[in-house]
Amino acid sequence: MRAGQTHLFVPGPTNVPEPVRRAMNVPMEDHRAPDFPNLTLPLFADLKTVFGNESGRVFLFPSSGTGTWEAAIQNTLSPGDRVLMARFGQFSHLWVDMAERLGLDVVCCDVEWGAGVPLDRFAVLLGEDPSIKAVFATHNETATGVTSDVAGVRRVLDAGGSDALLFVDGVSSIGSLPFEQEKWRVDLAVAGSQKGFMLPAGLAMLGVSRKALDVAAAHTGPRCYFDFADMIRTNDLGYFPYTPPVPLLHGLRASLGLLLDEGLEQVFARHHRLAEGVRRGVDALGLHLCAVAPEWYSDTVSAIRVPEGVDAAEVCRIGYNAYRTSFGGGLGQVAGKVFRIGHLGDLNEVSCLAALGAAEMSLADAGAPVELGAGVAAAQNWYRTAAANLVAA
C-alpha cells in the first residue's frame, strides 16, 4: 500500500475541492421538476458575473470545451466564411483544424510556439481584407503557458473599423485570469468545467454577446444539439432541451460559491501570486519557460523547457511512477521538450512548493543538472514576502 494521494499538477482536469465533491454526491432527481429552476437560474446569473457578460448570456452544454468551440462556429458562421486565426500551440492548432474541417476559409498566422496572438499581423491582415467575418484568439494557450492580450485584439478590430465577430478560447483562463467579456466586446467566449471552475470535465460554458445572439438568430446554417434557439427557449424557464448532467450542476453551484465568496479579484491575484512563485523556482533551477518573454507568461500554467539531452516525457514518467505526481507533458511541436505545471484552481502556496519539489527530483532522476532545493527555496522566499504583504495590507 502507498499512503497518501497522487498529486495532480496538470493544467486540467484540476483538483476538485472537497465542498464541490460533496455537492455532487446527490441522488438522481427529476430535471423537469417544478423546482429545478431554483438550481439552474442562479447558475446562469452567476456565470455571467464570472464571464463579465452583462447584456448577453452564458450557455451550459454537456460537453468538453471542444463542443462549445463547435457550438460557437455552427451558430454564427457558414462554410466559406473567411476567418482570421493564429496558431502558436496545440490548442490553437486544434481550433484551426476544427474551423477548416467545418468548411471555414481560414487565414492562419503561424507564430513561434512560446509567443501569442500577433496583434501587429492581425492589424495588417484585417486592413487588407475587409471580408473577414470573424477573428479567433486563444486567450491562454495551455500547451505553451502563454496568455495573449484579448483587449488588444479588440483594439485592433476597432482601429481597423472591422465588424468581425470576436471568438475567444478561455478554457484555461476564465475563472482564473481577468476576463471582461462585455468590456472587451468578446462575442463568443468558451470555457470548461475542468479548469478554473474546479469540476470534473463534462460541462462547457459559452458566453455569447448580444451582437452574437442577434447573428445566431438570423443564421440559417444547420445545427441541432448546439442550437442556441433551443437553449434559449428552455434555459429561460430554467431547463435544458435534453437531459443535463445534474450532479455537475450541483458541483458548479458549489464552485461558483467558492469563487464568488473569495472574490474574483482575489482569485486572480492568488493565481498570479502562485504562478510567480513557480516561475521564480524554475529560474532558480537554471531552466527556462516555453513562453519567450514575460509579456506572455501565463498565471495558470507554466510550460518548462528541459535541458538539452533530457526527455521531458521521462520527467513526467518519473514524477508519476516514483513520486506519485502528475505533470502535464509536452504537446505537438514541444513534445519531449517541455513539461507543464498547472497552477490553477484549488491550489495554494504549499501545493506549488510540492509541485516544485517533485519536479526537482524528477528532473534530477532524468539527468538534468539541477540543484535539489534551489527552486523550492526561491519560491519559498517569494511566498513568504507575498504573505507578509498580504498581512500588512
Explain how this protein is built.
The protein is globular, with a radius of gyration of 21 Å. Helix 2 packs across helix 10 (246-262) and helix 13 runs antiparallel to helix 14. With 393 residues, it is α/β, with parallel strands linked by helices. The chain has helices at residues 18-24, 37-51, 65-74, 90-101, 119-128, 150-159, 181-184, 210-218, 228-235, 246-262, 264-284, 312-323, 349-365, 374-392, and strands spanning 7-9, 57-61, 82-87, 105-110, 134-138, 140-141, 146-147, 165-169, 188-192, 204-208, 288-289, 301-305, 325-329, 338-342. The longest helix has 21 residues, at 264-284. Strands 2-10-9-8-5-3-4 form a 7-stranded mixed beta sheet, sandwiched between helices. Strands 1-13-14-12-11 form a 5-stranded mixed beta sheet. It is 44% helix and 16% strand. Strand 6 (140-141) and strand 7 form a beta hairpin. The mean pLDDT is 97. The chain folds into 2 domains: 18-261, 3-Layer(aba) Sandwich (Aspartate Aminotransferase, domain 2); 264-392, Aspartate Aminotransferase, domain 1 (Alpha-Beta Complex). It has 14 helices and 14 strands.
